[in-house]
């Protein structure tokens, strides 16, 4: 059985066209079916859809023989694990863009703050720049919104310099030229007949070329900034994505109006109708760290993300100060095709089968690690994933640590919940060291309004 | 669980990590003891730095080379929410410089030695953990300090009775002044230096093309390994005329070499010696035994300034234990040493207590006494202990003797004084 990992998202349309041209078209993939697994090659192969960043990891692990994804995600894996098992076969010629270093000005902290979804590449860039001191903030998204207040430099994907400028940033250097690549697992290539797949894909044309390497400028040309004056305005972080509708409801219940913070649009700096407060919209996953380092005074996020942050950094100074009681769901340990109905029973079942590490897949890698340690998993590995999670068990992982609400997705995918171990709602978080001086009354007043809104009855359907 | 990568390995040991077995530890202690004794004899005092250090100590230009930096074990600590990473110590000199800058800088010379491990990723099957004994001489000691370090390094090896010891010396200023004379910008110098450190000799041709005023080929410097003062004298005339900045480096090196020659040590002289470390600023040394590097070090006058201290001249060296262990013969037991295994005849608690009292009495007489026979026990005698009479029977290969009093047993066994 030949197994290929295919991308969802931006590369899907061109990848479907490539498969059609190669004579291995998968109708449901082409039409955008929500299914995650498709038979192909007349039953001799299977295709599985992943978020792009998960594909190099899955091919490196040997779960898939081949994959198609952007070179940037292959490089991201390479910078962390240079000895990985991924062979770059061909540039497929579509999905071209660059990874750009960009700033909002010409000054930077003495300890340069770099923000990126590509945190491993950012680490490499920082090392090669021989920066005397730096910090890399790995984020789930919205990196372009961080400079100048929350980062000096962002490493972002953009088509060209003009696209970087469209974010209001100054392009400093393009560090990688990236496009879609066909990759294969080294062991599979060495030992398994992949010809039915490879020969057809390679016959679609395109020139063989060496993969572009990371290129780092001699210097960023940024001046060391003077110590920043104390902030005079309170900073509030609001979430984008799925959490946005619940947050809008929580703000409305508190009588807070934030024009521009609407579902369906992403305005990174909407205006809140409260004097002395600035708002920025970022990913909820990234908020606890930003609050911990004092970039924001308050943030509306999920308790699950605070939990993930606190198991990684137990002495972090972030705490939940208001339960907003919306976006309700649980974190659960999920399996498929397991006889046992407890985690302990499942462990025995897997151990009886093999001594190999138990693969724990999760969008919450720190919680997954914590869960596996506390439940005495013994030998295990955590596979961080970016999405399309319900397709991971049982083929690509033994167990999935995932958020569940009504359980409809669990039932639809014939999954089993072994243990629901954490309850999450949306919440307001703050640094234990509260703002001082003129900021304090603004902070207290805003917290009071959010708290009174949280105390109001939540209409039916307030959960996820 | 069917993926090829997920198969169970045959060992529980982490890849690249090495267990040290009793025989290896015996050899390791032999090296460490010789090292510590020599250092103490020269007035050095022992320190130990933490296994975890901030990553930024190692990232500035002039500290670790980019190749080494790409292989460090760095991670976010449990309180690393600020985003600054920490690292498993990839080198001992930089932490020692940090320790001096933070804790010891009182304007006087610090003479420190250490015995600790460093970590760096390897994927060629070699060990990712490396044990080093090292010396740091921090303060304004001038070229005399360089001479002291070479002689001390040799003295630490003396008790190990190694054959085929070679001392190689260089000076970091040689390469740097050649590259500067060729008009390379600082970042180009750094790149060319790294290529030279990596053994890429095409750099020499490129540099030579930029120095038309040279009246002697640079290959005199980069392709020849010279011997002692004579070689340095041969280089000085032809090369310093075109590159006057080369003269101070050659003069410093000549001073050290002359002093060593007067002590009966004739070092080999090379232009490039230090690999993968950018912090060397003056003399650089390498000592080989059995054809492999066992000691390396040199002068690093800029390093303490780079890790947050005042600019204080310093130099040091590290002894690499793994290659030394391979050169040492297997440990042998002292033929004259008496090793006694006690055997109780009976099972009462009183007998056991009396047996331990017997063991203590015999150990106080300088004997090796085992009350449990281990896998490596090679007893010369066995002493049977019982509650009745005779209280003790001493058994050795060709005879046995009975005793009532332990002092009488001790008198028989006691080593001759």
Instruction: Quickly give the CATH architecture of the largest domain in chain A.
Output: 3-Layer(aba) Sandwich
Neighbour order of strands in the largest sheet of chain A: 2-3-1-4-12-5
* C-alpha Rg of chain A (nearest Å): 23 Å
Average of the residue pLDDT scores of chain A = 92
Largest sheet of chain B: 9 strands, mixed
N→C terminal distance of chain B: 67 Å
Q: List unreliable stretches of 5+ residues of chain A.
A: none
Number of helices of chain A: 15
CATH-wise, what's the superfamily of the largest domain in chain A? Periplasmic binding protein-like II
The tally of beta strands of chain B, per DSSP, is 17
CATH domain fold name of the largest domain in chain A: D-Maltodextrin-Binding Protein, domain 2
**Oligomerization state:** heterodimer
Instruction: Enter the CATH topology name of the largest domain in chain B.
Output: BirA Bifunctional Protein, domain 2
Shape of chain B: elongated
Q: Give the biggest sheet of chain A.
A: 6 strands, mixed
- Gap between N and C termini of chain A, in Å? 38 Å
| Proportion of strand residues of chain A | 25-35%
Q: Largest contact between protein chains?
A: A-B, 48 and 26 residues
Give a verbal description of the structure.
- The complex is a heterodimer of chains A (464) and B (417).
- Chain A is α/β, with parallel strands linked by helices.
- Chain A is built from 15 helices and 23 strands.
- Chain A folds into 4 domains: 2-95 and 179-202, D-Maltodextrin-Binding Protein, domain 2 (3-Layer(aba) Sandwich); 97-177, Periplasmic binding protein-like II (D-Maltodextrin-Binding Protein, domain 2, 3-Layer(aba) Sandwich); 234-328 and 425-455, D-Maltodextrin-Binding Protein, domain 2 (3-Layer(aba) Sandwich); 329-424, 3-Layer(aba) Sandwich (D-Maltodextrin-Binding Protein, domain 2), CATH 3.40.190.10.
- The longest helix of chain A is centred in the last third of the chain and has 17 residues, at 439-455.
- With 417 residues, chain B is of the alpha+beta class.
- In chain B, the strands form 3 sheets. A 9-stranded mixed β-sheet of chain B has the order 1-5-6-12-11-10-7-9-8, with helices on both faces. In chain B, strands 14-13-15-16-17 form a 5-stranded mixed β-sheet, with helices on one face.
- At the A-B interface, helix 5, strand 9 and helix 10 of A face loops of B.
């Amino acid at each position: 059985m030949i197994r290929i990992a295919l991308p969802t998202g931006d590369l899907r349309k061109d990848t479907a066209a490539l498969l059609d041209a190669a004579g291995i078209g998968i109708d449901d993939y082409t039409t955008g079916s929500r299914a995650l697994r498709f038979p192909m090659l007349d039953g001799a192969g299977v295709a599985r859809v992943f978020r792009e960043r998960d594909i190099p990891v899955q091919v490196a692990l040997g779960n898939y023989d081949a994959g198609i994804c952007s070179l940037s995600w292959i490089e991201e894996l390479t910078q962390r694990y240079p000895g990985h098992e991924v062979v770059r076969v061909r540039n497929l010629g579509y999905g071209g863009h660059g990874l750009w270093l960009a700033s909002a000005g010409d000054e930077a902290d003495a300890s340069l703050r770099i923000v990126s979804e590509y945190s491993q590449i950012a680490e490499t860039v920082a090392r090669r720049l021989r920066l005397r001191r730096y910090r890399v903030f790995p984020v789930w998204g919205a990196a372009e919104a961080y400079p100048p207040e929350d980062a000096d430099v962002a490493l972002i994907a953009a088509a060209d310099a003009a696209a970087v400028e469209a974010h209001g940033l100054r392009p400093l250097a393009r560090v990688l030229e990236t496009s879609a690549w066909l990759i294969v697992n080294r062991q599979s290539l060495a030992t398994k007949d992949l010809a039915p797949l490879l020969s057809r894909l390679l016959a679609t044309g395109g020139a063989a070329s060496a993969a572009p390497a990371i290129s780092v400028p001699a210097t960023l040309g940024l001046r060391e900034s003077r110590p920043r004056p104390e902030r005079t305005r309170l900073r509030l972080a609001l979430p984008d994505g799925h959490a946005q509708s619940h947050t809008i409801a929580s703000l409305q219940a508190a009588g807070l109006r934030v024009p521009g913070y609407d579902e369906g649009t992403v305005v990174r700096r909407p205006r809140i109708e409260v004097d002395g407060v600035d708002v920025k919209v970022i990913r909820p996953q990234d908020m606890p760290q930003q609050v911990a380092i004092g970039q924001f005074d308050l943030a509306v996020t999920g308790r699950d993300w605070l939990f993930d942050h606190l198991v990684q950094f137990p002495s972090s100074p972030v705490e939940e100060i208001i339960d907003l009681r919306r976006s309700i769901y649980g974190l659960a340990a999920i399996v498929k095709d397991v006889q046992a109905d407890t985690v302990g029973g499942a462990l025995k079942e897997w151990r009886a089968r093999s001594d190999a590490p138990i693969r724990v897949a999760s969008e919450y890698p720190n919680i997954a690690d914590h869960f596996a340690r506390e439940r005495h998993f013994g030998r295990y590995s955590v596979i961080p994933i970016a999405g399309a999670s319900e397709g991971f068990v049982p083929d690509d992982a033994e167990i999935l640590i995932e958020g569940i609400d009504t359980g409809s997705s669990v039932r639809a995918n014939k999954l089993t919940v072994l243990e629901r171990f954490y309850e999450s709602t949306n919440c307001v978080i703050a640094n234990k060291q509260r703002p001082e001086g003129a900021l304090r009354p603004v902070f207290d007043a805003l917290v009071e309004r959010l708290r009174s809104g949280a105390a109001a009855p939540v209409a039916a359907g307030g959960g996820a | 669980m069917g993926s090829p990568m997920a198969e169970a390995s045959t060992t529980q040991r982490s890849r690249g990590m090495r267990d040290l077995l009793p025989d290896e530890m015996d050899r390791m202690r032999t090296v460490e003891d010789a090292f510590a004794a020599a250092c103490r004899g020269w007035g050095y005092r022992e320190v130990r730095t933490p296994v975890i250090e901030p990553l930024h100590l190692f990232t500035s230009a002039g500290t670790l080379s980019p190749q080494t930096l790409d292989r460090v074990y760095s991670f976010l600590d449990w309180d690393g929410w600020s985003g600054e990473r920490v690292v498993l110590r990839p080198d001992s000199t930089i932490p020692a410089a940090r320790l001096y800058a933070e804790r010891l800088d009182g304007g006087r010379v610090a003479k420190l030695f250490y015995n600790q491990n460093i970590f760096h990723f390897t994927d060629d099957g070699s060990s990712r953990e490396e044990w080093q004994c090292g010396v740091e001489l921090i303060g304004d000691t001038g070229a005399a300090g360089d001479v002291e370090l070479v002689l001390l390094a040799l003295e630490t090896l003396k008790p190990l009775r190694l054959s085929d010891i070679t001392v190689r010396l260089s000076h970091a200023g040689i390469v740097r002044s050649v590259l500067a004379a060729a008009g390379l910008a600082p970042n180009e110098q750094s790149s060319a230096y790294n290529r030279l450190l990596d053994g890429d000799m095409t750099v020499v041709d490129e540099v030579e093309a930029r120095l038309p005023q040279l009246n002697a080929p640079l290959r005199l410097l980069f392709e020849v390994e010279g011997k002692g003062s004579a070689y340095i004298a041969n280089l000085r005339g032809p090369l310093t005329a075109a590159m006057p900045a080369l003269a101070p480096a050659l003069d410093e090196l000549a001073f050290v070499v002359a002093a060593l020659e007067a002590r009966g040590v004739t070092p080999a002289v090379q232009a490039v010696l230090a690999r993968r470390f950018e912090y060397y600023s003056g003399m650089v040394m390498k000592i080989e035994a059995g054809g492999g590097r066992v000691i390396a070090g040199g002068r690093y006058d800029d390093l303490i300034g780079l890790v947050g201290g005042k600019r204080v001249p310093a130099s040091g060296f590290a002894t690499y234990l793994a290659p030394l262990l391979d050169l040492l013969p297997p440990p042998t037991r002292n033929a004259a040493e008496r090793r006694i295994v006690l055997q109780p005849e009976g099972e009462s608690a009183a007998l056991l207590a009396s047996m331990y009292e017997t063991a203590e009495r015999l150990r106080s007489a300088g004997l090796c006494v085992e009350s449990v026979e281990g896998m490596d026990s090679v007893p010369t005698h066995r002493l049977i202990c019982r509650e009745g009479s005779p209280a003790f029977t001493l058994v050795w290969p060709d005879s046995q003797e009975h005793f009532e009093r332990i002092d009488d047993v001790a008198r028989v066994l006691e080593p001759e004084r």
